[in-house]
Amino acid sequence: MIRQNITLFLVLTFITGIVFPLIVTIFCELLLPYQSRGSLMEYASNRRASELVGQSFTEMQYFWGRPSVTAERPYNLMAGTSSNLSNKSMALQEAKLANRDKLTEIGYISRSSQIDTNISSEMLLASASGLDPHISIKSALEQIPRVANERSVDSEKIEKIVLSMVEYPLLGIFGESRINVFKLNLALDKKNLK
């Protein structure tokens, strides 16, 4: 009986611990090589970053993502977490107001913009993981005047690029239309806008 249990344990360990992961790895490498390697994109002299994790952009000429709740370094994969605060939580409301004041003070949206008093709520609070790489179309559109001003480019050119970067819901029904901030900023840098 013990011998059978040990044999079964070893066989299942071999199948589930070696054979199955090897088959999945080979399958993914052959059919989905980009995704299986972490969806890494190159930028700035061969530096790499994953398009699946938010990246920290704080310069005024770039679009900004949602706030990151990770500790010392923004979008730190090892520290991704959420606050689990209720919408009625005073701590959440205080954080939201503090983020609103901070974004207004540092010029998140252009002072000349009509939207200054109506910053998207998603830009005031972190996502569930604190690592979300996407923002809504509305959040991107409200940043256009600032980005266009900093790049000395007509806002219509920036808006055209923003709208070309929209990722639509999977199969037209799963999720929301969104924009990957990292991809958008890379596209802006690649275009010779003037």
Structural write-up:
The protein is mainly alpha-helical and about 190 residues long. It has one domain. The strands form 2 sheets. A 3-stranded antiparallel β-sheet has the order 3-5-4. Strands 1-2 form a two-stranded antiparallel ribbon. Helix 4 runs antiparallel to helix 5. The mean pLDDT is about 80.
Going across the major beta sheet, what is the strand order?
A: 3-5-4
Task: Summarize the helix and strand pattern as letters.
Answer: HHEEHEHHEEH
- Rg (C-alpha, Å): 22 Å
- The SS-based structural class is mainly alpha
Unreliable stretches covering 5 or more consecutive residues: none
Please count the beta strands (DSSP E, at least 2 residues each).
5
The main sheet comes to: 3 strands, antiparallel
Helix content percent band:
40-55%
Overall, the morphology is extended
Strand content: 5-15%
Distance between the termini: 78 Å
Give me the secondary-structure topology.
Elements: H1 2-31, H2 33-36, E1 40-43, E2 47-50, H3 90-105, E3 134-135, H4 137-151, H5 155-164, E4 166-167, E5 178-180, H6 181-190
Antiparallel strand pairs: 1-2, 3-5, 4-5
Helix pairs in contact: 4-5
Task: Offer a concise description of the structure.
The chain has 194 residues and is mainly alpha-helical. The chain has helices at 2-31, 33-36, 90-105, 137-151, 155-164, 181-190, and strands at 40-43, 47-50, 134-135, 166-167, 178-180.
Keywords:
mainly alpha; three-stranded antiparallel β-sheet; 194 residues; 6 helices; two-stranded antiparallel sheet
